Amino acid sequence: MSRAVTVATCALNQWSLDFEGNLERIFRSIDIAKSKGARYRLGPELEICGYGCSDHYYESDTLLHSFQVLEKLLESPATQDIICDVGMPVLHRNVRYNCRVIFLNKKILLIRPKMSLANAGNYRELRWFTPWSKARHVEEYFLPRIIQEVTGQETVPFGDAVLATKDTCLGAEICEELWSPNSPHIEMGLDGVEIFTNSSGSHHVLRKAHARVDLVNSATAKNGGIYILANQKGCDGDRLYYDGCAMISMNGETVAQGSQFSLDDVEVLVATLDLEDVRSYRAEISSRNLAASKVNPYPRVKVNFALCHPDDVAVPTCIPIQWRHHSPEEEISLGPACWLWDYLRRSKQAGFLLPLSGGIDSSATACIVYSMCHQVCLAVRNGNADVLADARRIVHDEAYIPEDPREFCKRVFTTCYMASENSSQETCNRAKLLAEQIGSYHINLNIDAAVKAVVGIFCVVTGRTPRFSVYGGSSRESLALQNVQARIRMVLAYLFAQLTLWARGMPGGLLVLGSANVDESLRGYMTKYDCSSADINPIGGISKTDLKNFIQYCIENFQLTALRSIMSAPPTAELEPLVDGQVAQTDEADMGMTYAELSIYGKLRKIAKAGPYSMFCKLINTWKEICTPREVASKVKHFFRMYSINRHKMTTLTPSYHAENYSPDDNRFDLRPFLYNTSWSWQFRCIDKQV
């Protein structure tokens, strides 16, 4: 009796609407799966068109081109003798569904629509798709003519069904269905399905990977079975980084683990497993078997094909492994670095420019770019021809081989310290030393002439000269003078990004990197249209606390000793005049709150869904050892006042790598008004009453 089944799953770096590239990567994954003996291949969610198409899903072109890609897959000899499970949008009776299309030897076996749609946080699937609500129900789907001509089929099954091969039974889940309280794998497992598949479009969030792994393993721990998960990887065109982690689990234990972060566009995971292990595992779970005897059966699509090897007695099977999780510092080092690489190569630019202030945030951003250079050199050393070709195109040298991260960094990364009369020599030295250690092309310039010219125009027009508060000016004057400096830095950053390579006799332009962290964005502690305004921001979803830990990680792992003095210096904007040659302005004094407090406010506001009153109620207990209720009330009121006054800045926030669940990103993740009644009179009165 055949028992060893070989299955393949993959993580593909698909790109929204890149039908040609997506098809090529799907073919590569199928070729690898077949070469390793797999009889079934699973791909990521909506892999044909790319997951992040957003409102392009409304377009008939997206549906048309998806079917054209499916046609290429069906007619290719590469897809023969292996069950292929691919993802694409399908229009059925004028309703759009997010579907799996499962086919074998030029015949479509089943089109399985998604039943639970992701619609929280960054996900908006209900905007474009409708969930299939007819459990265990199958209808006829009339195929487009281009597909009929290949398959010879006029209609195929469409709906909630499972596949019955000669030797086992397979059932599909799609991403969110694994996370829902009543996951389909529960009932499918009770109905005898032995292999569960899940095609995902799941993005990276710091400290999230273990939750996904635990869900997959728990799916088969109580019910037995084999669980195969595929996921998208990379930046497919927006703020999210899909973090791979393809995996295969059996009976509650991981047997194959894919990488979470890598520059490989195609990663295929293959495992050979013994179906008898599933059957014997289930045999002794009497409660499971009792429930199975009463389950409503799924429609079964019979498939005249065996997944097992014909002579499999001597075929070795996979054994459980221990999942290796990255630390948060490793995640920051790797995730945003891979995202930056995808953005750089796909935007066809020649590198990055970063205003490097000598503070923690811009230094952390520089370290992420340096980590990207490390990843590129490592990938090339490991034989990744795609990365080598991209690197050569970026530096415009067909013979170039990136071997040393510092040397590659010099080619693709420009840092710029923009001094003013309010800048200290210490921050200038820190920026210069860090640039030397990572190898970036570093520029020192002074912005005082530009600042004086701009302020001079105002003085000529109005006859008034604004002054800093330390020289007797009002807070309005001082803030305006600080903002002029900050905004001129943004203008100069874009000027140098466009023309620095031209001035050096090199082709191409540079992408400007921003370096505002998630806490500053939440508080609005930034000038609108200053250096926080950039093309992209790799740290915009990361907290100050995590960035400090990441800096320490870089000191230890990249031997960047310049970071030690950066770590020990108090964060400062350096926009107010120096006092006796020393910095007198600090971020936390300006904000009226600490970065640690900001992280707490952010998590309560977004993750715990707390308004001012609820936040006060939670914090009087959390902080009872360090603050009186009146002090808590004052802190909460100050946060909400500052948050609401500055919320308008989130509408122009630079696109940032999404890494934190309390991100205030206004684009799609954190939808709020940007014109508030900043007195919060009713809410604050409720707090005062409790005080």
UniProtKB/TrEMBL annotation:
GO annotation, biological process: 'de novo' NAD+ biosynthetic process from L-tryptophan
Functional pathway: Cofactor biosynthesis; NAD(+) biosynthesis; NAD(+) from deamido-NAD(+) (L-Gln route): step 1/1
One Pfam family named in its UniProt record: NAD_synthase
GO MF annotations, alphabetized: ATP binding; glutaminase activity; NAD+ synthase (glutamine-hydrolyzing) activity
Keyword Nucleotidyltransferase appears in the UniProt entry: no
Keyword terms of this UniProt record: ATP-binding, Ligase, NAD, Nucleotide-binding
CDD domains linked to this entry: GAT_Gln-NAD-synth, NAD_synthase
Membrane-spanning parts: none
Domain of life: Eukaryota
Enzyme Commission number(s): 6.3.5.1
Gene Ontology cellular-component annotations: cytosol
CN hydrolase domain residues: 5-275
The keyword Thylakoid is assigned to this record: no
InterPro entries: C-N_Hydrolase, C-N_Hydrolase_sf, Gln-dep_NAD_synthase, NAD/GMP_synthase, NAD_synthase, Rossmann-like_a/b/a_fold
Family under the similarity heading: In the C-terminal section; belongs to the NAD synthetase family.
HAMAP family the record matches: NadE_glutamine_dep
Quaternary structure (record): Homohexamer.
Full protein name: Glutamine-dependent NAD(+) synthetase
Gene behind the chain: Nadsyn1
